[in-house]
Amino acid sequence: LLVARHRLSFLKMWQIWVFAAICLLPGVVWYLHARNLYLTYGNTFGVFSGGDSKFGNFSYWLNPSFYRNLIALETRWIFAVGGLLFFAIGFILALRRRHPLLLIFGTITTPIYYMIVARYAQEEWGIQYHIYFAPFAALGTGIGLSWIVLKLRQVGWPDLRRSPYALAGVAGGAALLAALIWTVYMGQSSLYRPSGPNMLTCGTRVNALVPEGSLIIVSTTSESIQDGVPNNYQEPDIFFYSDRYGWSLPSDWHTPERVEAYRQEGASFLVIPDPTLYEDNPALASYLLENARQIGPGPEEGCGIYQFSPS
Known about the structure:
This protein is α/β, with parallel strands linked by helices and 311 residues long. It is built from 14 helices and seven strands. It is elongated. The termini are far apart.
């Protein structure tokens, strides 16, 4: 947009550089802070150090399923199915008129962003990465809807049957109805159901039962490696609600050796918020019976809190 309006002279505009600093520097400072958390506790989103890889490569870019997944997520979560028709009309109109450029550039650059964060952008649990397209989708959909309404008004209701825009009007109405129905249906999706109450309850119990300053290990249901690449398995909720620090334990690290290693580093408690993590790891269960006592509601209640015996 800057190049379209100012050519390269925007590089001489100090206001642009101040704007860029205001936008970018807080994020840089935050991720440097996050890197320090990783160096201390291993908790990270993998931007500056450690963690998983969000970034795309040719294995994603050359795979047709990557693009099918993107289209499916956009259709479902951004357009609610019905908005696609209006957006297609709006985008074609913008291309013909070369206006608004914001819609054209946004529609072109957002897929490039998806390619950069390919691993997360293609998954339904990564739908938060698609929120950046919502403003452009709204703009294009509004232009398309306005165009259809304008054409129908020009034709007039008496001549509507003979108008080539009648089909567009019917299709538009059907698309709106589909969008409404789809939105109601999506309200039943598991992604809309609260998943945090158990974490909040368990974190509150940890805060009450674990002495302040004690280091804890928190079990997670995510694996350390997913599809052959390091995975962001850290679960922050219990740490946040309990106001305690420590280490996350991915589901494939639930062994006596891993837990003992963190215990030797200073961990005093192990928190298991999912009963399957206890039931599916009998070796760890035996280790805890010999080396710890359960002081919480218990893993079967969604909050096992194990206090290690003094070494």
